[in-house]
Amino acid sequence: MNKPSKSAQPPPTDSLPPKHPLQRLASPHPFGFSALVHFLGLSSFAASFKYLADNPTPINASYGWHFQYLTILGLALATTTVMLASVADMTNSQHLFRLKNTLSMCTTPLEVLVSILYWTLRTYDKDLVIPTWAQLPLLPDLSFHFIPSLVLVIDLLLLSPPWTITVPQTLALTGGLAFGYWFWVEQCFSHNGFYPYPIFEMVGLEGRVGLFAMSAVVMTGSTVMLKWVYGMVNGRGGRGTPII
User: Fold this and answer.
1) Which DSSP letter does residue 60 get?
2) Looking at the predicted structure, is the pLDDT value of residue 45 above 50?
């Protein structure tokens, strides 16, 4: 009886199968476009956190540090998401790749929300979102409020399988995030005596409730929009990223 050849042995359990038919470019990949996007994204995110340390404001010494800002919470989640993607690139890990894709269903719409809200309000009146003592130069401003959403949208459209999250699931996720951030903001206010964004003080309690509710709706809309754009860019059909 012939012995089975080495080629007949099963592949390692953590090696990636062929990419999803709707995924445009190979990812994870240790040397390709995927690795470059994730490396540049992490470099930008690290520079943003360094900027906070190198340019202290009263927020640095307050309760909650800069994590009072939705921008910085989103940046931390974006860093975690892209770090998972980068490690998956280096190790070719299917588990980390799937984990990145699942986390992206929360992080990417959140960063799109941050960009939409920030630039809309800043265009109307920049003092609504940043006090006069904390105004940012253009490059740091872009690194906090535009680059994270850009990196994550590129990752979604070119380097990921399609999402399978439904509208009811999205509403539950965004509502939970909005309520959690509201609780966190009020917790920080109880210690600091001020809100991170001037607009929170201006609109009062009812206005804050409206802002958080509107944010949940906009984030849900951004998820639906991103799924639609993915379909326009890559086509539709097939099994996407499962929710774990």
Assistant:
1) G
2) yes
